[in-house]
Please model this.
Amino acid sequence: MSDDERAIRVLVDTWMAASQAGDITTVLHLMADDVVFMVPGRPPYGKDAFRTASQSMQGMQGMQFEGGARIEELKVLGNWAYVRNYIDLTVTPPGAAPVKRSGYTLTVLRKEADGQWRVARDANLVL
Model:
């Protein structure tokens, strides 16, 4: 496994761990400033909208997030890479039943000037 592949696997693991811990700052650092997210049922959105949505969920006392990501395919192409993941999530809002979601994502990453890999585009098909 190359150093780049290893760094991308660490990024995926860090993203999941930070998400579960409610560490929005770490998750935001793993994104390029011009990141674009695509999810079913809404137009593409960027880092600011992600931040706003994450902060509103973080403000819900007792919100729990559990999950995992299994990398199905990872390919490094110079300073670009893609990852096809299978994600399994359970979100439990305060006082409500858990909501389970699972499915595939396709993530495009870019190695930036500081040598760090960051998410540049993400198509999330988790339902």
User: Anything to note?
Assistant: Residues 3-124 form a domain with the Nuclear Transport Factor 2; Chain: A, fold (CATH 3.10.450.50). The two ends are 31 Å apart (CA to CA).
